[in-house]
């Protein structure tokens, strides 16, 4: 049941009014069971906030908060605007611009690392058989 705050109980339908009365009665009974010392402890902060006698935040607290925010902003700015440490890309060799030259470079890279072929030979039985034509 959603009863909007500030709704006049007379505007509710009879079942909602009965529910509202029952809940108000339970609330009043619960308040009667709370000791007077607890009521006083709960009433003091509410009274202090209503009269405006709360302790104001000092100016040094605001300055410290502002300083922390400024340091954080500078750290983020430095991290965001620093140049990357990777070297600039170099232009590819002129001979490697054709597709055939690129394939030759890839094959040459495989020839430089014989460990690939040793690994293939060691795992020959794990590969599917090649169909004969």
What is the secondary structure topology, with strand pairs?
Elements: H1 14-33, H2 36-51, H3 59-81, H4 99-112, H5 115-122
Can you give a write-up of this model?
- The chain is mainly α.
- Among the domains are: 8-51; 94-123, no CATH class.
- It is 61% helix and 0% strand.
- It has five helices and no strands.
- The longest helix is centred in the middle third of the chain and has 23 residues, at 59-81.
- The chain is elongated and about 95 Å long.
- The model has no long low-confidence stretch (mean pLDDT 76).
| Biggest pleated sheet | none
Beginning-to-end CA distance, first to last residue: 77 Å
Structural class: mainly alpha
Low-confidence stretches: none
How would you state the average pLDDT, rounded? 76
How does the overall form come out from the CA principal axes?
A: elongated
Question: What are the main properties of this structure?
Answer:
133 residues; mainly alpha; 5 helices; elongated
């Amino acid at each position: 049941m959603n009863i909007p705050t500030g709704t006049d109980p007379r505007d509710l339908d009879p079942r909602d009014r009965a529910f509202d009365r029952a809940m108000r009665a339970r609330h009043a009974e619960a308040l009667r069971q709370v000791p007077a010392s607890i009521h006083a402890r709960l009433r003091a902060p509410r009274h202090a906030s209503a009269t405006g006698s709360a302790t104001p935040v000092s100016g040094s607290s605001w300055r410290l908060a502002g300083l922390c925010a400024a340091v954080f902003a500078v750290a983020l700015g430095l991290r965001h605007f620093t140049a990357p440490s990777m070297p600039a890309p170099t232009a590819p060799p002129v001979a490697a611009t054709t597709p055939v030259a690129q394939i030759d470079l890839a094959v040459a890279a495989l020839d430089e690392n014989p460990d690939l072929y040793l690994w293939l030979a060691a795992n020959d039985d794990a590969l599917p058989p090649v169909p004969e034509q």
